[in-house]
């Protein structure tokens, strides 16, 4: 009887888990499906051709701008946080806990709370309406969370493995790129992809920095297109087409890298 009850309880737990996952999946997928359907309601593929040939905003220029910002931010954040995580996880130096705690405390500060000083800083640096003016803040805002993720993963790597490398005469930097990086590929790839997606989808920082349409990333281009239409049924269909086309590169990156995201999310639990 007890085994039957346990089996029924386990089945209910599994069914409940799948139900919750299906609900969350529907919340994310249904709007995308609706957008695709709406984009074809009037003029069909003509809406996509209109967007690709839109004279005020060049679609391919917008994608290039977002790729430049997102790829640069992702690579720099991944490199910096992988090095910093190694220092905080495997090296002992004065004030390490205080510095690490101060960095993590930045996670509690919303971006909206620092918009005024951020704008003033970017302006004083002469980086308004420049890709670098967006990249630098995105690196700063994404780095603390990514540092936390990689550092927690590095903590699971046995110190004995690194100690044997030190005995053999390996330098700290050599230990990092010969041992730590290869052992942490799932998590590092996870950080790379997540930073790319977060940077691609960011709206507030480009809104503060960018001024000319030719430098707009996808988020500002979408807003510009929506504000420049008359919201007729034909315009609404084109707006949905804009959303699909601008989100498509980010979706493709996510689909291609999904296995790294899953591996990175579960690796720490498996190693621990």
Q: Any overview of this molecule?
A:
This protein has 272 residues and is mainly alpha-helical. It has one domain: MetI-like fold (Orthogonal Bundle). Helix content is 78%, strand content 0%. The chain has 13 helices and no strands. The protein is globular. The mean pLDDT is 84.
List the helices and strands and how they pair.
Blueprint: H1 2-39, H2 46-52, H3 59-90, H4 96-105, H5 115-124, H6 131-154, H7 159-167, H8 172-183, H9 185-201, H10 204-209, H11 218-227, H12 233-256, H13 258-271
Helix pairs in contact: 1-12, 2-12, 3-6, 3-9, 6-9, 9-13, 11-12
CATH superfamily: MetI-like
Q: Return the average pLDDT rounded to an integer.
A: 84
Cα shape? globular
Distance between the termini: 35 Å
Query: Which CATH-level-2 architecture?
Result: Orthogonal Bundle
Total strand segments: 0
Number of domains: 1
Mind summarizing the main beta sheet?
Answer: none
Short description:
The protein is mainly α. Helix content is 78%, strand content 0%.
List keywords for this structure.
mainly alpha, MetI-like fold, 272 residues, 0% strand
């Amino acid at each position: 009887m007890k085994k039957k009850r346990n089996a029924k309880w386990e089945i209910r737990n599994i069914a409940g888990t799948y139900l919750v996952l299906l609900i969350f999946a529907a919340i994310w997928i249904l709007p995308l499906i609706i957008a695709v359907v709406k984009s074809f309601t009037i003029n069909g593929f003509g809406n996509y051709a209109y967007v690709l040939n839109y004279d005020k905003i060049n679609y391919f220029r917008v994608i290039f701008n977002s790729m430049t910002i997102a790829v640069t931010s992702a690579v720099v954040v991944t490199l910096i946080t992988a090095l910093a995580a190694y220092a905080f996880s495997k090296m002992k130096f004065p004030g390490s806990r205080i510095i690490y705690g101060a960095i993590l405390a930045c996670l509690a500060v919303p971006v909206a709370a620092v918009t005024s000083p951020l704008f003033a800083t970017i302006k004083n640096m002469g980086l308004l309406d420049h890709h670098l003016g967006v990249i630098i803040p995105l690196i700063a805002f994404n780095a603390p969370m990514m540092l936390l993720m990689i550092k927690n993963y590095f903590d699971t790597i046995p110190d004995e493995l690194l100690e044997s490398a030190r005995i053999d005469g390996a330098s700290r930097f050599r230990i990092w790129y010969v041992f730590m990086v290869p052992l942490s590929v799932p998590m590092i790839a996870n950080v790379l992809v997540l930073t790319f997606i977060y940077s691609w989808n960011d709206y507030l920082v480009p809104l503060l920095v960018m001024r000319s349409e030719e430098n707009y990333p996808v988020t500002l281009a979408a807003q510009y297109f929506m504000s420049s239409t008359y919201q007729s049924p034909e315009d609404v269909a084109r707006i949905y087409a804009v959303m699909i086309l601008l989100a498509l590169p980010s979706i493709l990156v996510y689909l291609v890298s999904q296995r790294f995201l899953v591996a990175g999310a579960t690796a720490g639990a498996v190693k621990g």
